[in-house]
């Protein structure tokens, strides 16, 4: 179990390090792109996700969970008019994790693909529970998102 915790911690640290490197490039979410992403996600009209959009996000998140059928998702609002073709989405899920310390409320970030302003694909970025959920919150904050606003 200690080896699993070490592997997960290493994976989280690597993900944060890589995102920090990518964030230094203007085209990958650096200062210029980050400001527009924050403006797009944090302000302006927002909407609830449709049932089909939720299914797409669930399909991206569920492989990271144990007993995914029992998971309870909490959904955050989504920009009504996203300015990016592949924005990020952050929310939370109550579920069992393959790592016992992370079971319960887990924050996640996914990159979504859009067609006509609606979610048509999703790719898991990062998920963590326990004290490491704050790491996901920090990643989401870079995009003006807050998984704790999920209801």
Describe this structure in words.
This protein has one domain. The protein has helices at residues 2-23, 31-42, 51-61, 133-141, and strands spanning 46-47, 72-74, 78-79, 88-95, 104-115, 118-129. A hairpin with an 8-residue loop joins strand 4 and strand 5. The model is unreliable at 1-41 (pLDDT under 50). Helix content is 36%, strand content 26%. With 151 residues, the chain is of the alpha+beta class.
Topology:
Blueprint: H1 2-23, H2 31-42, E1 46-47, H3 51-61, E2 72-74, E3 78-79, E4 88-95, E5 104-115, E6 118-129, H4 133-141
Antiparallel strand pairs: 1-3, 2-4, 4-5, 5-6
User: Which value, in Å, is the CA radius of gyration?
Assistant: 15 Å
Helix content: 25-40%
Kindly name the structural category. Answer: alpha+beta
Total DSSP E strands: 6
Shape summary: globular
**Average pLDDT reading:** 77
Main sheet: strands, sense, barrel: 4 strands, antiparallel
Instruction: Figure out the total of helices.
Output: 4
Beta strand %: 25-35%
For the largest beta sheet, what order do the strands appear in spatially? 2-4-5-6
* Poorly predicted sequence stretches spanning 5 or more consecutive residues: 1-41
Provide the succession of SSEs: HHEHEEEEEH
Quaternary organisation of the protein chains: single chain
Distance between the termini: 32 Å
State the domain count.
1
């Amino acid at each position: 179990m200690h080896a699993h915790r070490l592997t997960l911690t290493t994976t989280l640290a690597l993900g944060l390090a890589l995102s920090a490197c990518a964030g230094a490039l203007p085209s990958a979410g650096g200062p210029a792109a980050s400001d527009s992403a924050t403006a797009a996600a944090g302000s302006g009209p927002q909407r609830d996700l449709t049932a089909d959009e939720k299914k797409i996000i669930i399909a991206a998140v569920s492989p990271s969970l144990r007993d995914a059928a029992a998971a309870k998702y909490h959904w955050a609002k989504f920009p009504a008019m996203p300015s990016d073709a592949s924005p990020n989405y952050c929310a939370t899920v109550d579920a069992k994790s393959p790592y016992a310390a992370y079971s319960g409320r887990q924050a996640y970030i996914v990159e979504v693909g859009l067609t006509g302003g609606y979610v048509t694909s999703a790719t898991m970025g990062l998920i963590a529970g326990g004290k490491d959920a704050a790491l996901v919150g920090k990643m989401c904050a870079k995009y003006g998102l807050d998984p704790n606003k999920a209801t």
